[in-house]
Amino acid sequence: MKEKGILIVLSGPSGVGKGTVRKALFSEEELSLQYSISATTRKPREGEVHGVDYLFKERVEFEEMIKNDQLLEWAEYVGNYYGTPVEYVQKTLDEGKDVFLEIEVQGAMQVKKAFPEGLFIFLAPPSLSELRNRIVTRGTESEDLIHNRLTAAKEEIEMMDSYDYVVENDKVEHACDKIKAIVTAEHCKRSRVAPRYKKLLEVE
Ligand SMILES: Nc1nc2c(ncn2[C@@H]2O[C@H](COP(=O)(O)OP(=O)(O)O)[C@@H](O)[C@H]2O)c(=O)[nH]1
Ligand SMILES: Nc1ncnc2c1ncn2[C@@H]1O[C@H](COP(=O)(O)OP(=O)(O)O)[C@@H](O)[C@H]1O
C-alpha cells in the first residue's frame, strides 16, 4: 500500500501574507506540494486567473456543489462562499502527495474533523497595525472591505490555539523556512511506521 500524502492546512487573516508565503513554499523543490484550488463566489481580482488562483463560480453553481457533496469543506467569508473540491484532495493524497490548503478558520475546523491527521498551521501577523498596512498596501480592497476583513481577522486570531503550529510572518523567508521545517519534521515523524519499511521488517 502506498504511503498517503499529508494534508497541510494554512490559515491566517486576510493580508497576513498566506499567498506570498505559499508561493515561496511552492518554489521549494524538495517539498513538492500540490495546491488545492478552491471554488469561490468572490469576483476575480486583477491578474487572478480562473483555474489557477480559484475556480470562480456563481452562487447557484456553488450551492449546486454543496448539494452534490463535492466540497470537503466550505464557509461564507465576508459575503462570499469559499470551498475545497473534495475529489482532487482525495485523489492526490491517495497518490502519496502532500496537499496544501490555504483556507480560513471555519473551513479549517471542518477539515480537522474529517482529517484529524492533517497538519494545521496558522500564519500570524507581527501586529494588527502591520496587518492593516499589508491589506492597504496590496490595494485590492475598498475601505469597507478592509474594515470587514480586519473584523474577521480578530475572530480568526482567537482561533489560533486550535492549530498545531503558529508561525509569525515577520519576513517571508523566515516564515517559509519555519513551515518547511514543520513539514519536513512531520514526514520524519510519520516515516517511523511507513508502509515502505514494512517489507524490510518482513525480511528480518
Ligand atoms: N473555508 C475556505 N476558505 C478559503 C478557501 N479558499 C480560500 N479561503 C480563504 O478565504 C479567505 C478570503 O480569501 P481571499 O478573498 O482570496 O482573500 P485574501 O485572504 O485577502 O487573499 C482567506 O482566508 C482564504 O484563505 C476554501 O476553499 N475554503
Ligand atoms: N512578511 C511580509 N512582510 C511585508 N509584507 C508582506 C509580507 N508577506 C506578505 N506581504 C505583503 O502583504 C500583502 C498581503 O499579502 P498576501 O500574500 O496577499 O496575503 P493573504 O494571502 O494572506 O491575504 C501583499 O502586498 C504582500 O506583498
Radius of gyration: 18 Å
CATH top level class name of the domain at 7-36 and 98-203: Alpha Beta
Work out the number of β strands. Answer: 9
Overall average residue pLDDT:
93
Written as H for each helix and E for each strand, in order along the chain, the element string is: EHEEEHEEHEHEHHEHH
Q: Major β-sheet, in short?
A: 5 strands, parallel
CATH architecture of the domain at 7-36 and 98-203: 3-Layer(aba) Sandwich
- How much strand? 15-25%
* CATH fold name of the domain at 7-36 and 98-203: Rossmann fold
Detail the poorly predicted runs: none
Helix content: 40-55%
Q: Order of strands across the widest beta sheet?
A: 2-7-1-8-9
Distance separating the two termini: 20 Å
GO cellular component, one term: cytosol
Enzyme class: transferase
Subcellular location: Cytoplasm
Catalytic activity: GMP + ATP = GDP + ADP
In words, what does this structure look like?
It catalyses: GMP + ATP = GDP + ADP. It holds the Pfam family Guanylate_kin. It comes from Priestia endophytica. One of its GO terms (cellular component) is cytosol. The chain is of the alpha/beta class. The strands form 2 sheets. A 5-stranded parallel β-sheet has the order 2-7-1-8-9, sandwiched between helices. The protein has a 4-stranded mixed β-sheet with strand order 4-3-6-5. Strand 5 and strand 6 (about 80-85) form a beta hairpin. Helix 1 packs across helix 7. It is globular and about 65 Å long. The protein has helices at about 20-25, 60-65, 85-95, 105-115, 130-140, 145-160, 170-190, 195-204, and strands spanning about 5-10, 35, 40, 55, 70-75, 80-85, 100, 120-125, 165-170. The mean pLDDT is about 95. The longest helix has 20 residues, at about 170-190. Adenosine-5'-diphosphate binds near residues 15, 17, 137 and 169. Guanosine-5'-diphosphate (GDP) binds near residues 19 and 104.
